[in-house]
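To: structure desk
From: M.T.
Subject: fold request, one chain
Message: Could you run this one when you get a chance? Sequence is below, nothing fancy, just the single chain.
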Amino acid sequence: MKNLLLTALLFGLSFSAYAIEDKEMAERIAADVDLSAEQVEKVLESFKREVIATLKNDGEIRMNGMGKFFLQHTDGAERIDPRSGETIYIPAKNYLRFRAFATGNANFN
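Reply: Done. Structure tokens follow.
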């Protein structure tokens, strides 16, 4: 039981340690530029809307020195449900993807 609780605690911490949300990102950017966190949040929201709208129409967005956003399409397919043995249909879907460039301005070392 003690190991289970420790594992759950570490698992929970591992997610929070590596991800930030919009509000924290806006605060970090606001500290770096001459804008309020609220203004930066609006810019981030607008950026997300523009990425989605552009991908729907044009296919991909390249950000110099960073990477590219693109849509990955999966076709619909029939599969067997392992629990019931029934044939089910998985509909076609587009997924938002980001691929970092191999060389760029970012230094992660």
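Reply (cont.): Strands lie at 60-63, 67-74, 77-80, 87-90, 93-100. Let me know if you need anything else for the meeting.
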